[in-house]
Specification:
The chain has a domain of about 110 residues: Nonspecific Lipid-transfer Protein, Chain A (2-Layer Sandwich), CATH 3.30.1050. The chain is an alpha/beta fold and about 600 residues long. Strand 1 and strand 2 form a beta hairpin. It contains 23 helices and 18 strands. A seven-stranded mixed β-sheet has the order 1-2-3-4-5-6-7. Strands 8-9-10-11-12-13 form a six-stranded mixed β-sheet, covered by helices on one side. Bound molecules: zinc ion (ZN). Zinc ion (ZN) binds next to helix 4.
C-alpha cells in the first residue's frame, strides 16, 4: 500500500510537472522576448524566474532533515518533508507524534525516517490545531500504534468540530485559492517555497478523511502522560482559536505550534479564512514566554535554542503583532481608508530587520486590512465605497473616459515600461473585463500584458503567498493551466463520510432556484431504511424548498410532496454521483412512495451539484 501511494503521488507530480514545464517554457519565451526591448524589467534566465533574494535564502531553512533536538536523546523534528513539521518524542514504551503533515505520502516518508531511530509503537498523537497540514497524515501514524487501528489523539476541545467543518460549505473556492497561494500548479524552476514550508504536499489523498481527536481538553492547561512522558497542553488561541502549544518539562521544550514561525505571522491569509483575533494571538505569546523554555520547536521552520534568544524572539513577535494592530486602529480612528492604512504601516526598523519577522508568509499590509475588517466589516467608511461600481462597470467607464480601449492599452504599456506594474495590471484587466469595447487585437495584447504584469509582480514579492498567486495567475491568464477546480473525489469523499446534516448544509449553498420557484413551497422526504452510518438521523430527512432557500430537517414526513424510501448509503451515493442521478433513482435502492420520479428530478435539478 505504501508503494502504491508513493507511486500514485509521484505519477501525479510528474504529470503536473510536465504540463507546468511546457507552460513555463511558453511564458519564459514571451517574458524574455517581451522584456528584451524594455530597459527596466526583470529579465528571466533561461531556466527560472527571478526570486526575491531574501525569499530565495529562506528556502535553505527547509532543507529536508530529521533534527535531533539538542541536549535530548528522545525529541526529533522532521522538517522539509511537507508544509508543516512533524515532531516525534520517544517515550519509554512508545512514541508521541505532534502534528502529522498534510498528506499520507509525506507522513510515510517521515515515518520511514523516524523508524531509523526507533521501532516503538505510536502511543499518542497531538494535533496543535485543525489545519489540514497538521492533521492530514494521521492515518499513517495510527497504523503504527500497538493494535494498528487505534491511538489516542489529543487536541483542544473545539478542534474536532473545526476539522469537520473546515471549508465545508466553501470547499471548492477554498481549494482554488489555496492552490494559487501555495503554488502547487507552478513548476520547479518558477516555484520557490511556501513561506512557512518547502511546498504543500499532495493533499488530495487525505481530503475529508482526517481522523478526529479521541481525547480533548477544555481548560487553559491540561497535563497528560503518554509512554512515560509528561506534557502540558496549553490552549493558546493565535493563528487559530483552537491552537495548542505543548510544553515538555523534562527538557524544558516548548512546542510552539503555529503561533511562531520564521516569518511575519499570517494575521490574514490570502487563501481566505475567518478573521483572526490578533490581540489574542499576542496575548497567547505572553503565555508562551512565561513557560521560559530553553528550546522552542515550532510546527513550521527551524527550532530555536537558548532561553534568552527565545524570549527575545517571542517578545519581538508579539510586539510586532501588537504594533500592527495598534497602529491600524490609531489610523482607523483618524478615518483613514483601509487601503491607505495598509500602505502607511511598516514595522519599526529594528523589528523589520529581524529575519524571523520578514514577510515571507504574512504581510503587514494584508494584516492591517484584516484588522480593519475585524472591527468594522467590509465598509471602508468612504461613501464612494458604499454603492461601489462593479469592476466590470468601472472598466467600461474607464475606457469611455480614456476615449477607447487602444488608449487604455497604450497607457498600460507605458506604465509597464515604467515598472508601474500594478497600474498596468489594473488597466489591462479593465480591457479584459469590458471586452465588447475592444478589437480582438487589443484584447490579445491586453491579455499578454496582463500576463507580463503578473510575472513581474510575482518575481518582486518577498511573500511566497503573493509570489505563488501572481505566477499562477500568469499561467491561468495565458490558458497554460486549465481552470483550477476542486477534484471531484473531494466532494465525493465529503458526501460519503460527513454527517448528512452537514451535507445538506452544503446543499443549501448549491441551491440555484429558478425564478419560477418564487413563492413556491415543495418538500422531499427521504425515509431511511438502514441508519447504521447515520448517528443523528431519526427516521430520515425532509428537504423543503421555501422562499427560494433549502430548509433541511432531520425527520421524514409523509406530508411531503415527494416521499422516497431508500438507504443511507444509496442516498449518499445519489448526491455523490450527480451525473447518474436519474439512473440511481430508478434503481432498486429507491422506492418512490409518493410523487413521481419526474418531480423528484425537477427538484434535484435546482442544485449546482457539479460545484
Ligand atoms: Zn500550519
Amino acid at each position: 500500500m505504501i508503494q502504491q501511494l508513493l507511486d500514485t503521488n509521484t505519477t501525479t507530480l510528474l504529470l503536473a510537472g510536465t504540463v507546468a514545464t511546457a507552460a513555463l517554457a511558453y511564458i519564459l519565451y514571451h517574458a524574455t522576448s517581451k522584456t528584451k526591448t524594455k530597459k527596466h524589467n526583470i529579465h528571466n534566465s533561461s531556466s527560472s524566474l527571478y526570486c526575491n533574494h531574501d525569499l530565495k535564502q529562506h528556502t535553505h531553512i527547509f532543507k529536508q532533515q530529521v533534527l535531533q533536538i539538542q541536549n535530548t536523546n528522545n525529541v526529533y523534528v522532521a522538517i522539509g518533508y511537507s508544509l508543516a513539521n512533524c515532531i516525534m518524542i520517544e517515550g519509554d514504551t512508545g512514541i508521541i507524534i505532534i502534528d502529522t503533515t498534510e498528506s499520507l505520502s509525506s507522513a510515510l516518508v517521515v515515518l520511514d525516517e523516524f523508524r531509523k531511530i526507533t521501532n516503538k509503537p505510536v502511543a499518542g498523537i497531538i494535533y496543535t490545531h485543525f489545519h489540514h497540514d497538521h492533521v492530514g497524515g494521521s492515518e499513517v501514524f495510527i497504523k503504527e500504534s500497538i493494535d494498528g487501528k487505534t491511538c489516542p489523539i489529543w487536541a483542544q476541545e473545539t478542534t474536532e468540530e473545526r476539522i469537520s467543518n473546515f471549508n465545508s460549505i466553501i470547499g471548492p473556492l477554498a481549494y482554488v485559492r489555496a492552490t494559487k497561494m501555495y503554488g502547487t500548479k507552478l513548476d520547479k524552476p518558477s516555484f520557490e517555497n511556501c513561506g512557512i514550508g518547502p511546498f504543500l504536499a499532495g493533499v488530495d489523498d487525505t481530503q475529508g478523511l482526517e481522523n478526529s481527536p479521541t481525547h480533548t481538553y477544555n481548560t487553559p492547561t491540561h497535563t497528560i502522560n503518554i509512554a512515560g512522558i509528561e506534557l502540558q497542553l496549553i490552549h493558546c488561541p493565535g493563528e487559530t482559536d483552537d491552537q495548542t502549544v505543548v510544553y515538555m518539562p523534562r527538557h524544558n521544550i516548548l512546542f510552539a505550534a503555529d503561533n511562531y514561525y520564521e516569518s511575519f505571522p499570517n494575521l490574514y491569509t490570502i487563501r481566505g479564512a475567518p478573521n483572526r483575533d490578533v490581540v489574542q494571538w499576542a496575548n497567547s505569546i505572553d503565555i508562551m514566554i512565561n513557560t521560559s523554555p530553553d528550546v522552542m520547536v515550532p510546527s513550521h521552520t527551524l527550532p530555536v535554542y537558548g532561553a534568552k534568544e527565545i524570549q527575545i524572539r517571542l517578545q519581538n513577535y508579539r510586539d510586532a503583532i501588537q504594533y500592527v494592530h495598534d497602529q491600524t486602529v490609531r489610523l482607523m480612528l483618524k478615518n483613514y481608508h483601509p487601503d491607505e492604512i495598509a500602505s502607511m504601516i511598516q514595522l519599526p526598523s529594528n523589528l523589520r530587520d529581524c529575519e524571523y519577522l520578514k514577510e515571507f508568509y504574512g504581510t503587514v499590509g494584508w494584516s492591517a486590512k484584516a484588522i480593519f475588517d475585524g472591527y468594522m466589516g467590509w465598509y471602508s467608511g468612504d461613501e464612494c465605497d458604499l454603492m461601489k461600481l462593479t469592476p466590470t462597470e468601472y472598466a467600461h467607464r474607464l475606457i469611455d473616459l480614456a476615449g477607447d480601449s487602444q488608449t487604455v492599452l497604450d497607457k498600460a504599456q507605458r506604465a509597464f515600461d515604467d515598472q508601474d506594474y500594478q497600474w498596468a495590471l489594473e488597466l489591462s484587466s479593465a480591457i479584459l473585463r469590458a471586452q465588447e469595447k475592444s478589437t480582438r487585437h487589443v484584447i490579445k495584447a491586453a491579455k499578454e500584458l496582463k500576463t507580463q504584469c503578473c510575472l513581474q509582480l510575482g518575481q518582486q514579492q518577498i511573500s511566497a503567498n503573493s509570489r505563488n498567486w501572481y505566477l499562477t495567475s500568469a499561467l491561468l491568464n495565458e490558458g497554460k493551466v486549465s481552470e483550477i477546480k476542486v477534484p471531484k473525489k473531494h466532494l465525493k469523499n465529503f458526501i460519503l463520510t460527513k454527517p448528512l446534516g452537514m451535507i445538506f448544509s452544503t446543499m443549501c449553498v448549491r441551491f440555484n432556484p429558478s425564478k419560477s420557484l418564487a413563492g413556491v413551497t415543495k418538500s422531499l422526504s427521504f425515509i431511511l431504511k438502514d441508519r447504521e452510518m447515520e448517528r443523528e438521523a431519526a427516521d430520515g430527512w425532509t428537504l423543503t424548498i421555501r422562499n427560494c432557500v433549502l430548509y433541511s430537517k432531520n425527520e421524514a414526513s409523509l406530508d411531503s410532496d415527494i416521499v422516497i424510501e431508500t438507504t443511507e448509503k444509496a442516498l449518499r451515493l445519489l448526491f455523490a454521483q450527480p451525473s447518474s442521478i436519474a439512473k440511481s433513482v430508478l434503481s432498486s435502492d429507491f422506492s418512490v412512495k409518493k410523487g413521481d420520479v419526474r418531480t423528484f428530478l425537477q427538484f434535484i435539478r435546482n442544485f449546482d451539484l457539479d460545484l
